[in-house]
Amino acid sequence: MTTPQFPPLFSGQNAAGGDPFALAIATADVGCEAGLVIYDLGADLLRVAIVFAPDVSLSDAAVILPICGVGLQNAIGALGPPEVSVHLGWDGTVYVNGGRCGTLRMAASGKLDVEPDWLVVELNLTLWPASDETGLTPDQTALYAEGCSEIDAVALLESWVRHTLVGINTWADSGTAQIHREWGGLAHGLVGDITLAGQAGTYIGLDDRLGVLLKIEDDTIVIPLTANLTRPV
């Protein structure tokens, strides 16, 4: 396998079959440089975790999750055929041509109103279906089953990191306006009556941190992106 090449200030580490998300969190907990990319390139699954060190509060830094999603859409768009569509769930679910194809998830240190020591985002993307009986799971798909079999996993990993870096630089330079527009155009499932983070209501939009605004009876509440923070089981 070709060793992935990353932009300056990023470094790669092969998880060698381990869990990149758990490894990245453990490494960040004891102290590591931002930009560490831990990856596991299986034949049917791409798993990658990136360690970030935001210089804003965790409540603001959580926008890195949708930035990574837009970076993935840009990477697949650059490498795949034009007819392939990628959409993004607010909870980090990745959809390709309407089917669930992967997930993005995030973990971080510290409290919401404090600058985190680290923030980790993991991409878990299905390349090949787990079974030939794909009709049994019509709502799930795999990247190569959707006309993207020519995309090399290493090239996709490299492209995702590059596009994500561009998005983070844009956010650092000019705020959330552009990611708000780009992610909003790729959003999946944010319409009408929805349930997120245990709250059921009517979707009415996104705030400037990409938190979801829900109308519940006569009240409007915000579900912040930090509701998606998780840790490996």
From TrEMBL:
Leader sequence range is none
Entry's Gene3D superfamilies? 2.30.30.100, Bira Bifunctional Protein, Domain 2
Ranges for the BPL/LPL catalytic domain? 6-183
Q: Which domain of life is it from?
A: Bacteria
Which part of the chain is the DUF4444 domain? 194-230
**Name of the protein:** Biotin--[biotin carboxyl-carrier protein] ligase
Native organism is Planktotalea frisia
